[in-house]
Amino acid sequence: MSKKDRLSVEPYKGVRDFYPEDQAFLNYLFTTFRTFLAKAGYVEYHASILEPAELYRSKTSDEIVNEQSYLFTDRGGREVMLRPEMTPTVARMVAAKRRELGFPLRLFSIPNVFRYERPQRGRLREHYQLNVDLFGSRSGAADAEIIGVAYGLMRALGAEEKDFVIKVSSRTLLENICSEHGLAEDARATLLSLMDRRAKMSEEDFDRDLEAIGIPKEKLSSEEVPAELAEMIKDFKEAGIENIEYAPDIIRGFTYYTGMVFEVFDTHPKNNRSLFGGGRFDNLTALFEDESLPAVGMAMGDVTIRDFLEVRGLMPTYVPTTHVYLATTAPELAVKVQTLAGEMRRKGVNVAIDFGEKKIGDQLKAATKHKIPYAIVVGEDELSSGEFVIRNLETGTEEKRSRAELPNFFLQ
Amino acid sequence: MSKKDRLSVEPYKGVRDFYPEDQAFLNYLFTTFRTFLAKAGYVEYHASILEPAELYRSKTSDEIVNEQSYLFTDRGGREVMLRPEMTPTVARMVAAKRRELGFPLRLFSIPNVFRYERPQRGRLREHYQLNVDLFGSRSGAADAEIIGVAYGLMRALGAEEKDFVIKVSSRTLLENICSEHGLAEDARATLLSLMDRRAKMSEEDFDRDLEAIGIPKEKLSSEEVPAELAEMIKDFKEAGIENIEYAPDIIRGFTYYTGMVFEVFDTHPKNNRSLFGGGRFDNLTALFEDESLPAVGMAMGDVTIRDFLEVRGLMPTYVPTTHVYLATTAPELAVKVQTLAGEMRRKGVNVAIDFGEKKIGDQLKAATKHKIPYAIVVGEDELSSGEFVIRNLETGTEEKRSRAELPNFFLQ
Question: All domains of chain A, ordered by start, with CATH?
Answer without folding.
Answer: 12-311 (3.30.930.10), 324-411 (3.40.50.800)
